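Researcher: We plan to redesign the surface later, but first we want a full-length starting point. C-alpha cells attached.
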C-alpha cells in the first residue's frame, strides 16, 4: 500500500512548522511539488526542505504539473470542481509513476490543510475514483488565522462567542453575514472590507504573516481602511502578489 501525507507547514515562518511535519519531511520517500502562484512561495518551500530535511540523500522531489484554473469562469463552483478533477488526474499520474507500492509521499500545504485548501478534497476524489489505492494522513499546520491572532495578540473569539470564516468574494457579494459578530476574511483579492465600511467594526489585518514582509494594521475599520488600501497597493506593486487575512469584529456586540 502507498501512503500519502498532507503536511501543513505554516504560513511562512519556518519556526512555526511542527515537529510532526519535520519528522514527516524526513521520513517520506517522495515530496510532490506543486507549482505555486509565485516564485517566492516556490523558493520558500525549497528553503523549508533545505532547512529541515537532514537525511542524506533526502526524499526524491517530484514535480506535479497541474492544470491552470479558469479564473474568468462565471460559474465559480463548477470551475473549481473542474479544476479539482484536473488536479486529481495530474496527481494520479504522479503517484502511479513516481511512488512505488510500500513507499510514502508528501504534499506540502501552506498553513493548515483543513482551511481553504483542496489537498484533502483532491485525495478523497482520487480514492473515490477507485482505480488507485493508498492510505493518507493529515498533519496540521499553523494557519494564517492563528498567525494573524498571534501577531495582533488577540483571542480569535470573544467570551463564549462564535466566529465565522468567509472569503472576500462572499463578503463583497452578500455583505455582513446575518447574526455574525466576528468574521475572519480570507482569499480577498479586492479589499472586500469596503463592502461593510458603514458597519461599526474593528479590523485586525495582516499580510505576508510570518514572513519578513509581514504587515499589520488594527483599528476602527472606517479609520484604517484607506491605510490598508495603501499598504495593499504598495505591497502588490513591490512584490507582485499579496496574501492577507483579517478579522472584522463588530463594535455593536460589545
Ligand atoms: C488558499 S488559502 C490557504 C489557507 C491556508 N491553508 C491556511 O491555513 O492559512 C490562501 C489564503 O490564506 C491566507 N493566507 C495564507 N498565507 C498567508 C499569510 N502568510 N499572510 C496572510 N494571509 C495568508 C490569505 O487569506 C490567502 O488568500
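Model: Full-length starting sequence:
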Amino acid at each position: 500500500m502507498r501512503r500519502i501525507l498532507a503536511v501543513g507547514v505554516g504560513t511562512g515562518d519556518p519556526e512555526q512548522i511542527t515537529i510532526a511535519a519535520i519528522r514527516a519531511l524526513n521520513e517520506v520517500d517522495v515530496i510532490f511539488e506543486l507549482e505555486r502562484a509565485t516564485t517566492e512561495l516556490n523558493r520558500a518551500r525549497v528553503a523549508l526542505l533545505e532547512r529541515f530535511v537532514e537525511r542524506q540523500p533526502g526524499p526524491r522531489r517530484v514535480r506535479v504539473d497541474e492544470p491552470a484554473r479558469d479564473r474568468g469562469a462565471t460559474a465559480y463552483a463548477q470551475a473549481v470542481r473542474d479544476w479539482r478533477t484536473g488536479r486529481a488526474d495530474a496527481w494520479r499520474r504522479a503517484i502511479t509513476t513516481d511512488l512505488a507500492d510500500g513507499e510514502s509521499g508528501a504534499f506540502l500545504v501552506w498553513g493548515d490543510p483543513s482551511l481553504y485548501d483542496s489537498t484533502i478534497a483532491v485525495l478523497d476524489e482520487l480514492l473515490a475514483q477507485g482505480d488507485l489505492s493508498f492510505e493518507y494522513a493529515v498533519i496540521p499546520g499553523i494557519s494564517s488565522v492563528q498567525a494573524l491572532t498571534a501577531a495582533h495578540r488577540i483571542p480569535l473569539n470573544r467570551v463564549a462567542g462564535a466566529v465565522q470564516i468567509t472569503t472576500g468574494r462572499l463578503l463583497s457579494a452578500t455583505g455582513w453575514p446575518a447574526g455574525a459578530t466576528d468574521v475572519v476574511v480570507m482569499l480577498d483579492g479586492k479589499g472586500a472590507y469596503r463592502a461593510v465600511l458603514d458597519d461599526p467594526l474593528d479590523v485586525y489585518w495582516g499580510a505576508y504573516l510570518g514572513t519578513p514582509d509581514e504587515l499589520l494594521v488594527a483599528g476602527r475599520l472606517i479609520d484604517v481602511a484607506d491605510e490598508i488600501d495603501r499598504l495593499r497597493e504598495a505591497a502588490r506593486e513591490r512584490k507582485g502578489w499579496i496574501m492577507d487575512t483579517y478579522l472584522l469584529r463588530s463594535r455593536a456586540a460589545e
